[in-house]
Amino acid sequence: EKKLTNEESSGLGRRRFMNSAALAGLTLGVAACAEKKSEGAPAAAGSAPAATAHGGGNASHLKPGELDSYYGLWSGGHTGDVRVLGLPSGREILRIPCFNPDALVGWGITNESKKVMGTKADGSLRYTVADTHHVHASYKDGNYDGRYAWVNDKINSRIARIRLDYFVCDKITELPNVQGFHGIFPDKADPVDPKINYTTRVFCGGEFAIPLPNTGTEDSSKYRSLFSCVDAETMEVRWQVLIDGNCDLVATSYDGKLAATNQYNTEMGAKYEDMMSAERDACLFFNVARIEAAVKAGKFKTYGDSKVPVVDGTRESNKDPKTALTAYVSVPKNPHGVNASPDAKYFICAGKLSPTATVIELAKVLDYFDGKLESADKAIVAEVELGLGPLHTAFDGRGNAYTTLFLDSQVVKWNVDAAIKFHGGDKSAKYVVDRLDVQYQPGHLNASQSETRAADGKYLAVGCKFSKDRFLPVGPLHPENEQMIDISGDKMVLMADHPVRGEPHDFIIFKRELVKPKQVYALEDFPLAVKDPKESGVERNGKKVTVRLTSQAPAFSMREFKLKKGDEVTLILTNLDKVEDLTHGFAIPKYNVNFIVNPLETASVTFVADKPGVFWCYCTHFCHALHLEMRTRMIVE
Ligand code: CUK
Ligand code: CUA
Ligand code: CA
């Protein structure tokens, strides 16, 4: 039965569920939404003045020399990278290339980065496109521990790991048997061993169903999606679960026992009309301990060339809750995000095509697996209307949730306990606390520390998919608008707009003390390091030639080196400058080589010296008053 908030009963009722026709209309209406608020939505608090909450100034305007108090890790969308922002200022500090080549640092050019990215037999990169959506970091005791972050590549089903000591990508794994790897979430503890109170697994949701093995069958009723578990340290795929329906986003419980994915295509349709035909889809829970016991007991299959064990999580095979690996909790029409509340009690699924959020109590899901709940759906403790197009939810640690309303272009702040009371029949429970217009069409949002036990309720960032009129026009391609909102008070207050290059999805925001970045590398971490300028030189072994050199401002250790046409050259460069911020570049004209070496970093490139002549290899990264003079001659005879 539909449940309306007292505040909204008139407005939302008639627009409750979207059918195909309504969705098509709303999609076309997106452009108009910016100017014209969908009628029926209550007047929002967005007209409030800019934030003055912190000592009279706008906290997003830092004085020169002032540092931000939070880091933000942003996915870069189909630029394939991860961005590092300082918050609340919103200043972009770094882009971390992961899946796609990057011209600044030489990612995809150096042998070291190519090894991480993956190459074909001829040494060229296996892929040069990617689509990153979700960034999440490793946990300890329910908070980030500053070891790693992970990000997905939806296009080629890869997961990349970022070391948070150097802010670089160090490993990439391609998931077998899946397409459209979308949601990702690290676990926060081990389900069995209480000593392991930190991340050892990363869960990955496969969104697009495919034939298993992928033979090119047209009959889509045979297609399947899998849920995968990757080892946080080795980055190997530990196991997969065959499921009914698909996976979208992923959440994990604080006790390590449960992971879940929201499912929008329980219909297993191949066309969108089919994908939205059912009134309810699901939030699919995984019993991690039971899955691992099944793998241990050999109750799995493998597909094609993959050796990864795949257990059976389908509805048919998991009817008895006491042995089930999975539990399908029904959620209205094509839900989108699934988010874990910082009190560790609930997962919340946003309705997307239903104007609702569904609150699922994790203790009850565990009861279901113990055979103490008559159906998995009894774990739903609230299902309340929020507005049109709810997508993602963040938390402030004070019992409030913040959900983006894509179609209404709003963030709605609502109280979870009040929503549970309202759902339980107390119609006087006012669960909607506040609404704020955002500019425009928000996708993800996240609050400072939101996805940890230490949610602090200070700042909320909202990733608006359309910026329209908020920045100077620059032709057809618009930036996205990441908005900063002060959530420390009762009312949300818009602090700032930040243009970002397309097109981030998810992000996390955490206190700066939680990471301890190193700004100078350790020489001995690089097996190829040229530790002394005296080790420089050209070593010939038939056609294979190794060039070793070092950089120390304002010179490379060799002023020239000679090669013969046709040589297969590996050039190794170690930056012996150990001063923070002293990076050198190395470009070889006409050879398509340019990369950087940070303090005490070693990098190498391999190429065939196929063009005779003199080539001034020069430092591309401004380093010294004699930066322009910092060159070496490569002479190819
Ligand atoms: S999905 Cu992009 S707005 Cu890939 Cu996280 Cu929801
Ligand atoms: Cu070295 Cu510029
Ligand atoms: Ca559906």
From TrEMBL:
Which residue intervals define the domain Cytochrome oxidase subunit II copper A binding in the entry? 542-637
The GO terms this record gives for MF are: nitrous-oxide reductase activity
Renumbered to this chain, the signal peptide range is: none
Give yes or no: UniProt keyword Metal-binding. Answer: yes
Q: Which cofactor does it need?
A: Cu cation; Ca(2+)
Its annotated pathway reads: Nitrogen metabolism; nitrate reduction (denitrification); dinitrogen from nitrate: step 4/4
Principal location class: periplasm
Q: What subcellular compartments does it reside in?
A: Periplasm
Q: Which reaction does it catalyse?
A: N2 + 2 Fe(III)-[cytochrome c] + H2O = nitrous oxide + 2 Fe(II)-[cytochrome c] + 2 H(+)
Q: Which domain of life is it from?
A: Bacteria
Q: Could you say which EC number(s) this protein's record lists?
A: 1.7.2.4
Keyword terms, alphabetized: Calcium, Copper, Metal-binding, Oxidoreductase, Periplasm, Signal
Q: Which family does it belong to?
A: Belongs to the NosZ family. In the C-terminal section; belongs to the cytochrome c oxidase subunit 2 family.
The subunit structure is: Homodimer.
This chain's function reads: Nitrous-oxide reductase is part of a bacterial respiratory system which is activated under anaerobic conditions in the presence of nitrate or nitrous oxide.
Descriptive protein name: Nitrous-oxide reductase
Q: Which organism is it from?
A: Roseateles flavus
Q: What is the lineage of its organism?
A: Bacteria, Pseudomonadati, Pseudomonadota, Betaproteobacteria, Burkholderiales
